[in-house]
Amino acid sequence: MHFHIVTLFPESFDSYFAASIIGRAIKDKKIKVSFYNPRDFTKNKWSRVDQSPYGGGPGMVLEAESVLRAAQKAIGSKKDVEVIFFDASGEAFTNVYARTVVKKKKHIVMICGRYEGVDARVQKILKAKKVSIGPYTLTGGELPAMVIVDAVSRQIPGVLGTFESIEEERISSAEVYTRPEVLKWKGKTYKVPPVLLSGNHAEIEKWKKETSGQ
3 with 34: CB under 8 angstroms? Predict the structure, then answer.
């Protein structure tokens, strides 16, 4: 899977993508990540990519042309591409979405907005899928892009140590415990649920199912 991210701030991804599972997946060439900064695609000699909105209102809007050029560089002549335009009112991103896109596409292009957003004509011209990671507003599309890279990468064979590590493929409790069996903290004692120490796998799976809400 090749992730193509259109963003004004590619450096904001550095620490997260260099760490842990995602960093290892990039190193092992299980996934690839490329960045496209609209400032590199503008004709403006000052590399300005934002303009005041028509109709008035606060803030600035990312202009269409430089974002389209950046996105077109990412898309090229590829056919198996999913183009994503982040929008709080868009389709909710889920594990089902992540699994589906892994099976059907080899490239994901993500348009990361900033300021008051991206000129709406970008989404219409690219016929990009409007996607939301939650009913709230963020200062930019970089965090949603990280979420999608992480969630989609987990679905790619070989990225995780074992297939069973994918939570949705097993019964996973909302509660997990490890040593010590008895934890003493500020004068109180906290114990691991007895069922987890019983060795009775049927009862343990039943407990996991009950605490997972499944």
Answer: yes
Q: Measured in whole angstroms, how far is the alpha carbon of residue 39 from the centre of its chain?
A: 23
Task: Tell me: do 12 and 59 sit in the same domain.
Answer: yes
Number of domains in the chain: 2
Question: Residue 20 has what pLDDT?
Answer: 81
Q: Is the pLDDT of residue 80 over 80?
A: yes
Please give the Cα distance from 156 to 1 (Å, whole number): 8
How far is 112 from 115, CA to CA, in rounded Å?
10
How many residues would you count in the chain? Answer: 214
The DSSP H or E segment spanning 103 is helix 95-104
β-sheet bridge partners, residue 131: 91
With a pLDDT cut of 70, the percent of the chain lying above it is 93
pLDDT 10s digits, 132-149: 999 988 999 999 999 999
Q: How confident is the model at residue 32 (pLDDT cuts 50, 70, 90)?
A: very high
| Domain carrying residue 199 | 171-212
Rounded to 5 degrees, what angle do the CA atoms 134, 168, 111 make?
35
* Strand spans (E) along 28-77: 32-36, 50-51, 61-62
Inter-helix orientation angle 95-104/142-153, to 10°:
70
Given the DSSP bridges, would you call strands 2-6 and 32-36 parallel, antiparallel or unpaired?
parallel
CATH number for the domain that contains residue 188: 1.10.1270.20
**36: nearest Cα among 2, 1, 59, 60:** 2
Q: Which helix (H) or strand (E) holds 191?
A: strand 188-191
